[in-house]
Amino acid sequence: MADDYILETRGLVKEFKGFVAVNDVNLKVRRGHIHALIGPNGAGKTTVFNLLTKFLSPTRGTILYKGEDITHEKPAQIARRGIVRSFQISAVFPHLTVLENVRVALQRKLGTSFHFWRPEASLNVLNDRARELLSYVGLEEFAAMVTVELPYGRKRALEIATTLALEPELLLLDEPTQGMGHEDVDRVKQLIKKVSANRTVLMVEHNMNVVSGISDMITVLARGSVLAEGPYAEVSRNPQVIEAYMGSATELAGAHA
């Protein structure tokens, strides 16, 4: 059923001066699933994300969200529809406290972001919801800490809290565990699983243990095209996928084991 898919691309193509970065990608993201987009470096994963969030315009093809054509909409329109993206590099305000970062995100949702003349105390009404979100991602005890002092893995949890403040239906996560130690990876993996309970998650992720542990469906890109799609157990045994990863083939097998 078409209604089962919250996001769909049809014949998505992106060319840069003759170089085809994304080539005829047909993607179907099922509502309520964690869908992983994987592939070797240069496979076109981030370009697909940039097309979905309108940071880039497709050369050809169609993007559908909840059955509606959003191909030519602007990034702000996409965000208002409930598509929110978390970036590869942690995108938080380093010199605000953890609580203040979430409060800023909540303020954006209220549409009062640029009311600079309002006294700071007027934002205190947002504190309860901000603390609730921090508790949800396991950061309540860090609320008063200046964000620059927060450990790296906790910053990613904070970034997820700020995206949740915008109440997304579809959460796009770009390399959520990149650069993390094992303990932080596991914490963020469990957090992604938790936040997916009542929303859809589409993520680009290199860590195969994360992908194998929480993904419902996986799309493998290589040279801008879809190489394979299916559950992890199926995709990880695909000879074409193993060949595309080459040196990473043992990583694929190891995660499956």
Secondary-structure blueprint of this entry?
Elements: E1 5-16, E2 19-30, E3 34-38, H1 45-52, E4 60-65, E5 68-69, H2 75-81, E6 83-86, H3 98-110, H4 127-136, H5 152-164, E7 170-174, H6 182-195, E8 200-204, H7 208-214, E9 217-222, E10 225-230, H8 232-235, H9 239-245, H10 249-256
Parallel strand pairs: 3-8, 3-9, 6-7, 7-8
Antiparallel strand pairs: 1-2, 1-4, 4-5, 9-10
Helix pairs in contact: 3-4, 3-5, 5-6, 7-10
What does this structure look like?
The structure is a single chain. With 257 residues, the protein is an alpha/beta fold. The protein has helices spanning 45-52, 75-81, 98-110, 127-136, 152-164, 182-195, 208-214, 232-235, 239-245, 249-256; strands at 5-16, 19-30, 34-38, 60-65, 68-69, 83-86, 170-174, 200-204, 217-222, 225-230. The chain folds into two domains: 1-82 and 169-257, 3-Layer(aba) Sandwich (Rossmann fold); 91-167, no CATH class. Strand 7 (170-174), helix 6 (182-195) and strand 8 (200-204) form a beta-alpha-beta unit. The mean pLDDT is 87. The relative contact order is 0.17. Helix 3 crosses helix 4 and helix 5 (152-164) packs parallel to helix 6 (182-195). The protein has a six-stranded mixed β-sheet with strand order 6-7-8-3-9-10, sandwiched between helices. A four-stranded antiparallel β-sheet has the order 2-1-4-5, with helices on one face.
